[in-house]
Amino acid sequence: MIHHKRQENTPVLGCYRINCDGIKLPKYATEKSACFDIHADFSHQPTIQSYYNDEKIKTNTETNSFCLRPQERALIPTGLVFHMPEGYSLRLHPRSGLAWKHGVTLLNAEGIIDEDYYNETFALMYNAGTSDFTIKHGDRICQGEVVKTNIVFIEPINSEPKQTTDRAGGFGSTGVNK
Questions:
Q1: What CA–CA distance (Å, rounded) separates 60 from 135?
Q2: 3-state class (DSSP) for residue 100
Q3: Cα angle: 121, vertex 95, 37; to 5 degrees
Q4: Is residue 127 within 8 Å of residue 72, measured between CB atoms?
Q5: Which residue of 19, 37, 104, 123 pairs with 98 in a disulfide if CB–CB is 3.0 to 4.6 A?
Q6: What does the pLDDT read at residue 63?
Q7: Contact 37, 26 (CB under 8 A)
Q8: Within 10 A of 122 (CB to CB), how many other CB atoms are there?
Q9: Residues contacting 129, CB < 8 A, separation 6+
Q10: Would strands 36-39 and 27-28 be described as parallel, antiparallel, or unpaired?
Q11: pLDDT, tens digit (0-9, with 9 covering 90-100), for 54-87
């Protein structure tokens, strides 16, 4: 894993570990990685909140692992509380290898941790595959990216927006082979 040196004027993401011995701090995998890896932390969570067949269940994690069944979604703890730099948010992205090889992804496609959120961060994981997938304590489960927050002023307008280009349609309207 790569440890980047702090450059002048680089924002700092504060990272509090709930159990200092429980989990590694997030790190970039390569020098040019856009995101840093975030790990599963079962050291302080005796149960995992999960939904399977639309039934809310709690699963014991005494084995320091969790079996995510096909079509199951679960809140996987990271053991981390982030302190955002002012004007930024943290985006959680799926790991492409988990999605490709196992069908395991983040259910909400991208988790957003706002600047004013001060609780443990969980990854909302989903198994879209056909086999059970075991998540072990310390496994890399998602990626994090700190993003500048762009606040816009939202105001009502009195007339429906008009088309300003030659585009026609929405979903699939631009085709596949253009």
A1: 13
A2: helix
A3: 55
A4: yes
A5: 104
A6: 80
A7: yes
A8: 19
A9: 70, 102, 103, 104
A10: antiparallel
A11: 777 777 667 888 999 999 999 999 999 999 999 9
Q: What one-character DSSP code corresponds to residue 178?
A: -
pLDDT, tens only, 90-146? 999 999 999 999 999 999 999 999 999 999 999 999 999 999 999 999 999 999 999
128, burial (CB in 10 Å: exposed 0-12, middle 13-18, buried 19+): middle
> What span, in angstroms and rounded, lies between the C-alpha atoms of 121 and 93?
13
**Exposed, middle or buried by CB within 10 Å (0-12, 13-18, 19+), for 82?**
buried
Q: Cα separation of 87 and 8, whole Å?
A: 17
- State pLDDT tens for residues 2-14: 555 667 788 899 9
